[in-house]
Design goal:
It is built from 11 helices and 13 strands. By secondary structure, it is α+β, with helices and mostly antiparallel strands.
């Protein structure tokens, strides 16, 4: 009897397409060894879990309802082993404000920000003054709980109100100081500092298209061309953030390197596993094949995460 693996994929977030790509990437690696089924997290999820009786659920969901503790709580209640982080750490990591507060409390450098509430009227001039005094332009505006750079905009004084309109479906958003500099991402695998990679996007920044569209031709640089001391520093910060939030399995932390300092933007509890994904690329550079990475994630699965 082959071990049963249920891959959860698709879902309701704006990252649905990437989740399905991750699922196929994983499926193609393990289909011969295991009895594998891909399942949507819909109204029939609990029925499907109970009828299929998987040994492990590989959580390939990205974004809301899959990466925010919601699905993890269901799997905990069903006592089914699953991959990646648990309910609490998942909900903290996806919430950019709560995770930022934890970073700050633990002396992890992160860009300054403030909350903007669409339901509270504020004059345009008042907002401009607040941004200039607290952050200065340019700034980054983004939702509190989306991943993959979904709905993220770099704004100047000239275009901020045009871009704010694009996010008006959200009740609250984050207005964050824009940090220029180099894009460096770090993978953690359990308690292992797996490695770092630098991204040089041809677009304005490493946005959704730069991440997932091969035509965007984002340059991947590995090993990162900075000193061993600095590489060690960023790996240590990523592991510290992983532990501070209580993450399990594999995570990827996104940094900006500017004026010889690393600014942690966010930590991803369920990084992509597509042909363009960074964690498999970092693993491969460190002599861990894609299949071995997937196998490790499956073996690491448990409940009470």
């Amino acid at each position: 009897m082959k071990k049963k693996i249920l891959i959860l994929a698709g879902g309701f977030s704006k990252e649905r397409e990437i989740s399905l790509r991750t699922a196929m990437g994983v499926f193609n690696q393990i289909n011969k060894k295991y009895h594998v089924k891909i399942c949507e997290p819909n109204g029939l999820l609990i029925k499907n879990l109970r009828s299929f009786k998987p040994s492990v659920v590989f959580n390939a969901l990205h974004g809301r309802y899959g990466e925010d503790g919601y699905i993890q709580s269901i799997l905990e209640s069903e006592k089914i082993k699953y991959t990646h982080s648990g309910p609490l750490s998942s909900s903290i990591a996806i919430d950019k404000e709560i995770s930022k507060k934890l970073f700050i409390k633990n002396n992890i450098l992160t860009p300054k920000y403030f909350k903007f509430n669409f339901n509270k009227f504020i004059k345009k001039n008042t907002l401009i003054k607040k941004i200039k005094s607290q952050l200065n332009f340019p700034v980054v505006i983004k939702p509190f709980n989306e991943g993959s750079s979904v709905e993220v905009y770099i704004c100047s004084k000239r275009n901020i109100f045009k871009n704010l309109k694009k996010l008006s479906t959200y009740k609250e958003i984050m207005i964050e100081k824009y940090i220029p500099g180099r894009e460096i991402q770090v993978a953690i695998m359990g308690n292992r500092k797996l490695g770092a990679i630098e991204l040089v996007p041809r677009r304005k920044f490493y946005d959704y298209r730069a991440k997932y569209d091969a035509k965007s031709k984002t340059k991947h640089i590995i090993p990162v061309n900075i000193s061993k001391k600095k590489i060690k520093e960023v790996l240590n910060i990523a592991l510290k953030a992983h532990k501070v939030i209580g993450c399990k399995g594999v995570t990827r932390s996104d940094f900006k390197f500017y004026n010889n300092k690393f600014y942690l933007l966010e930590i991803n509890t369920q990084p992509g596993m597509t042909s363009l994904s960074l964690v498999p690329e970092i693993a491969k550079f460190n002599n861990i094949s894609f299949i071995n990475l997937i196998e490790w994630i499956i073996k690491d699965a448990s409940i009470q995460r």
